[in-house]
Amino acid sequence: MEEQLNTDVDRLEPKYGLSGGKRQLSREVEMDIAQLNHDVPQLSEVFSIVDKIGEGTFSSVYLAEDKMSLRQRRRFALKHLIPTSHPIRVAAELQCLTVAGGQENVMAVTYCFRKDHHVIIVMPYVEHEPFVDIVGNMTLQEVCHYIFNLFIALKHIHKFGIIHRDIKPTNFLYNRSQRKYALVDFGLAQGTPDTQIELLKEVISKAQKGGRTTGEPEHSRGKSVPATAPVTLATSQKFLFPSSTKPPAEKKPCTIYTSADAKPSKELMTPCKVTRSVFGERNMNSINPANILDTGVEVIRSVNTKDIAARKMLQSKYQSATVKEQVSGQKHRDLALDSTLTCSCFLTDRVCNICLSRKQQVAPRAGTPGFRAPEVLIKCQKQGTAIDVWAAGVILLSLLSGRYPFFKASDDLIALTQIMTIRGSRETIQTARVLGKEVVCSHELPRLDLRRLCEMMRRTQPGQEETVWTEIQTTCQSCSPIKNNLDKTSMHIEQNWDRVPDEAYDLLDRLLDLNPDTRIKASMALQHPLFKDLNVTNGV
To answer: What does the UniProt keyword field contain (predicted)?
Structure first.
């Protein structure tokens, strides 16, 4: 087998990079291409695979040229799904592409190959630039075009009842020179209750019965979280954004508590893994456990005498119940705790037996850290197309501020804290209650003015990071998750960036609405005054 692969590698044709020029492939890439040709031999009859352009948790993507074309060889992207992908999930992704793809900025599917457990989805190749390379030099007009076309794609897929669940720049390809766009990667897609994608209905049915059909890794599956006992979230600049010259402090275990019943999860005690970009773009959300910044979301011990009195009262109830059990002859039996009792671990560094006795709650968590909506972070079971709109809002926030990625969190708790520093802790708490959850924050974080925030970030020049950060603290009276990203992209003032219309920030505010029920829909976003001229031109 190894000898055959080596022979196949030696016979590979000249390779081409994304820009069309020749480049030398690594031995590892050559072996992967040879392995793919060996596993799916019919591929080599139709395509010449010239490069591996992306690799993720669920798939690898290759650049190929069509052998059948007599004149000019067309280029295609071959998406090789991991062999362990659930058959229903694979079929659902294909059905999403065939039903909704090929129009309205949604990627089309050209062919599909299957050999044993190997599945190859063939799509037209869209040459594009990495988003991180262009976010700092896009004009305001270009930003409007980009977001407008993203909403065209979202409106289209939402019409079919498709929730993409992984909206981010790496999944919305942008050919800058030709002004072409393509929404890709429906591997994590789910359906709304009235979805027109039949196989997504089956995915929902399997998920409700407890079956795993998404092919998600552990960090993306529905997880149980401790519930009801609200733990304080400490959010100070010292903990959220330590100086880059200081070593990161040791992470302390922390839990987010909601009103739903659940048990503790190891997930909240360790950083989550992050999927690499499938289409070859550098993933700025990758987390290196050795370099994680302490976000300061920690448990604070109580010094409130009222809390101490409440715990003593609750403890007396436990002791009284225990005595009654012993009198009745039940020895060494654990006390069956009443789920209506107030928990005894509020503002402490432990999880009490009441919280441990709660039932588990499982909710979809698929998506990329930094782009997950609040309802996903607090484990709401009812999740709809609004989560795609939130992710689009995060992209617009990056474009208006010139910072990508804007949010960078190692777990859902830190991600929720970062959202609170922008949208306000009081607003987040109120929204959580509306959604049937409970979130407690130790410090009140005021809601920031989005225009002020973005303009300060866009004015930042190399060497001025600390000065700008001090100004933000002074004017906004709050800490913000953007300090970590100040050195990611240095911005120069473009001709029209000092005249961003109010409509841009009004749309951003409506996209980042914490409540999914009142968040603007993709179809309504297209009618926003910001896109008035584009609607006339495109006839939307």
So the answer is: ATP-binding, Kinase, Nucleotide-binding, Serine/threonine-protein kinase, Transferase
Distance, CA of 316 to CA of 91 (rounded, Å) = 57
Residue 113: beta bridge partners? 120
> Helices 386-401 and 450-459, interaxial angle, to 10°?
40
Please give the Cα distance from 493 to 438 (Å, whole number). 42
The answer to whether 252 touches 350, Cβ cutoff 8 Å, is no
Residue pair 267/324 in contact (Cβ under 8 Å)? The answer is no
- Tell me how far apart the alpha carbons of residues 521 and 134 are, in angstroms, rounded to a whole number: 27
Q: Regarding predicted confidence, which is higher, 209 or 277?
A: 209
Percentage, residues of the chain above pLDDT 90: 46
Q: What is d(CA 255, CA 242) in angstroms, rounded to the nearest whole number? A: 21
Q: What is the DSSP string of 427-470?
A: HHHHHHHHTT-----SS--PPPPHHHHHHHHHH--TT-HHHHHH
Distance of alpha carbon 399 from alpha carbon 404, whole angstroms: 8
User: Count of residues for the chain?
Assistant: 540
Written as one letter, the residue type at 80 is: H
Phi then psi dihedrals of residue 520, to 5 deg = -65, 145
Give kind and range of the element (H or E) at residue 62: strand 59-66
Q: How many CB atoms lie within 10 A of CB 492?
A: 11
Q: What is the CA radius of gyration of the chain?
A: 25
26-30, 339-343, 436-440, 491-495: which range is least confident on average?
Answer: 491-495
The CATH number of 131-300+359-529 is 1.10.510.10
Cα 119 to Cα 84: distance, rounded to the nearest angstrom: 11
Give the Cα separation of 90 and 93 in Å (integer): 5
Q: What is the pLDDT of residues 345-399, one digit of tens each?
A: 766 666 777 777 766 666 667 789 999 999 999 999 889 999 999 999 999 999 9
* Distance between CA atoms of residues 458 and 397, nearest Å: 11
Amino acid identity of residue 190, one-letter, is Q
Strand locations in 82-203 (E): 111-115, 118-124, 162-163, 172-175, 180-183, 190-191
Instruction: List the binding residues for ATP.
Output: 79
SS (H, E, C) 334-365: CCCCCCCCCCCCCCCCCCCHHHHCCCCCCCCC
Both tokens of 379, joined, read 């484990």
Whether 352 and 315 have beta carbons less than 8 Å apart is answered as: no
> What is the rounded CA–CA span in Å between residue 52 and residue 64?
9
List the Cα angle 178/179/183 in 5-degree steps.
Answer: 120
Strand segments (E) across 74-200: 75-81, 111-115, 118-124, 162-163, 172-175, 180-183, 190-191
**Cα–Cα nearest to 201, from 210, 190, 212:** 190
Q: pTM of this prediction?
A: 0.70
Given CATH 3.30.200.20, say whether it is the number of domain 2-124: yes
Examine the pLDDT at 505 and tell me if it is beyond 80. yes
For the chain, give every domain's residue range.
2-124, 131-300+359-529
Provide the annotated active-site residues. 166
